[in-house]
Write a structure and sequence with these properties.
By secondary structure, the protein is mainly alpha-helical. The protein has helices at residues 2-6, 16-26, 29-41, 45-67. Helix 2 (16-26) crosses helix 4 (45-67). The longest helix has 23 residues, at 45-67. The radius of gyration is 19 Å and the shape is elongated. The termini are far apart.
């Protein structure tokens, strides 16, 4: 997590550090090992930022859509005349 700790945010809305720390905190042990190994391969702040964004786009956003509930139309099952 040294690279994450050394990361320089590009602005006040840059959530890269909090995203990467959250993943590190919540991953199981074998996931943490892989996660940390991948972080070590990232050489720049931009690469860290891109990786954090890919975690959001590829994992978090799709999981959020699974939480939504379907709403049944009041016309469900009615024949159109």
């Amino acid at each position: 997590m040294e690279k994450v700790n050394a990361y320089q945010p590009v602005g006040p809305k840059d959530k890269t550090v909090s995203i990467l720390r959250a993943f590190h905190t919540h991953l199981p042990e074998n996931g943490k090992t892989n996660f940390l190994h991948h972080l070590q391969s990232l050489q720049t702040n931009q690469a860290l930022r891109d990786h954090a964004q890919s975690l959001i786009d590829g994992l978090v956003a799709p999981l959020r859509s699974l939480r939504s509930t379907l709403s049944i139309s009041p016309r469900f099952g009615m024949e159109d005349y």
